[in-house]
Amino acid sequence: MRARILLDGERPKVRPSELRGIVEAAGMEVGRRRADIGVVVGGDGIFGRFGRTEDVPLLFVGVRSKRPTDSKARLAEAYLDELPEVLRMVRAGDYEVVEHKRLQVIKNGRSLGEVFTDVYLERGADSNCLRYRVVIDGEGTKIDESAIGDGVVISTPAGATGYYSYPDRVRGGTLDPSASSAIPADELGVCHIVPTFTERAGSVGHPLRYTVPWGCVVKLSLSRRADARVFGTAEGRSGIRVGLKDVVVVGPAEGVTRTISVKPHA
User: Angle, nearest 10°, between helix axes 16-25 and 83-91?
Assistant: First the structure.
C-alpha cells in the first residue's frame, strides 16, 4: 500500500521526515503518484483544503495540544500518537471508506471549485458590515433574505463543527469552545455571520441559522458596494473578490470526498 503525505506547506504540525518515518515503519510506501490513501496531518482547515482537492481516501490525523488557540481537529480520525497503530489497521484492511458530498461554487458562470466543508461570503479588511441577499431555490424550498452583517456561511455536514456552529458557542454571555451543531447528511446549512439585521420575504422572522434540503441552490449577491470576498475555494488567504454586480451560486457538486474510518475493535 502506498500513502500520499499531505501537510500544511507553511506551518506543518509535524516534520515531513517524521511523518514519512511513521508511515514507512507501518509497512507502507510513501509517494504521491499511484497512492492508495492520503495521510493528512493538521487541523480542520487543512482537512477542508485537501478534502476538496485530493482524489484518494484521506486519513485525517490531528495533533494533541494544550494551547487553547490550536485547532481542535474535530474531523480527525486519529491523533498523531495513535497513527502507527491506525496505519497497521489500514494496511490490514480493517477500515472503511466513507463518501462525503461536496458543494460547487460558481461566480458569474465560472466555477471557483468544489468545497468539502464550507464556503463563506465575508467582508474583507477594508469593509464595514456587508449588505447582501441570499436566495435559495429547490426541493420545495424558496427563500429570499436580505441581511446586514459580516457575511454568510454555507456548510456541508462535514463543516458543521466549524464556522457554522459559532452561535452554539456563545450562549448567555459565556463561551463554550467545544459546542457544535450537526447538519443531517441530506441537508446543507446556512448561517449568517454576526448579523445586525436579517429579513426574510413573506415572514416576520429574522433568521440567523437554518438548514435546507440537499439539492437546493443558494445565490449570494451584494446589495451595496463593499470589500467582500468568497473564502473556502482557493488556497490563498485573501479570498476571491465579489463586486456589486457579481452573483455567487452554491449548489451540489459532482465530486465527493472520501475519508478513512477505522473500524472499532470488537
Answer: 50
72 pLDDT above the threshold of 80 = no
CA–CA gap between residue 152 and residue 191 (Å, rounded): 6
Contact 151, 248 (CB under 8 A): no
CB-CB contact of 249 with 218 (8 Å): yes
Among candidate residues 71, 99, 135, the one with its CA nearest the CA of residue 254: 99
Report d(CA 17, CA 9) in Å as an integer.
Answer: 14
188 close to 216: Cβ distance less than 8 angstroms: yes
In the block, cell 427563500 appears at 143
The CATH fold of domain 102-256 = Tumour Suppressor Smad4 (2.60.200)
193 closest CA partner among 154, 233, 249, 160: 154
Question: Could you tell me if 241 and 231 are in contact, meaning their C-beta atoms sit under 8 angstroms apart?
Answer: no
| pLDDT tens column, 176-215 | 877 788 999 999 999 999 999 999 999 998 999 999 999 9
Kindly report, residue by residue over 92-134, the tens digit of the pLDDT: 999 999 999 999 999 999 999 999 999 999 998 888 899 999 9
What share of the chain in percent tops pLDDT 90? 80
Question: What whole-number distance in Å separates Cα of residue 113 and Cα of residue 108?
Answer: 13
- Taking alpha carbons only, the member of 43, 252, 44 closest to residue 164 is 44
Q: Where are the domains of the chain?
A: 2-93, 102-256
Does 2-93 carry CATH code 3.30.1360.120? no
